[in-house]
Amino acid sequence: MLQPVLNLLRQGLTPQQLALTVALGTAAGMVPMLGITTLLATTAAVRLRLNVAATLLVAHLWSPVQLLLIIPFMSQGARLWGSHSPPLTLEKLQYLFRHDWVAALGLLWHAILGGLALWAGAFLVLGPILYFTLRPVLAHLMGKRNASEAVAPE
């Protein structure tokens, strides 16, 4: 059952395209803003003519990591954007929304902008590293697979 799904996801992709799919899916899957993973991954895949299903699969496989990193990204993002208040925590946000929702929205806005800036900076470095690391590995693996398919009788 797994092999047909893997074949569908790899369909028509070169090792370079598959490496780019994984790198972009990883970046989209870790964006520190809930609700835009699918839009970001789909837009990137369509724009670059990659396999949309494979990009979405990679992006959504990173969802647990995204949930773990969202508060640290936003906390550091708030500090980056100039918030001099104590570090952003879930308890602090809950308290602010109960007592002063305008201040909570302001803090959240700065935290999201700063978190997105940190995420973009991180993936400007990590994206190419991931791509250039995966490209030869996938070329080797796909070359082995193609060679074994050519030898195997149908």
From TrEMBL:
Record keyword Ribosomal protein present: no
Family annotation (Pfam families): DUF2062
Coiled coil residues, start to end: none
TM stretches of this protein: 20-40, 52-74, 107-134
Keywords for this protein: Membrane, Transmembrane, Transmembrane helix
Domain DUF2062 stretches: 6-139
The protein's name in its UniProt record: DUF2062 domain-containing protein
Taxonomic source organism: Hymenobacter swuensis DY53
Lineage, top ranks: Bacteria, Pseudomonadati, Bacteroidota, Cytophagia, Cytophagales
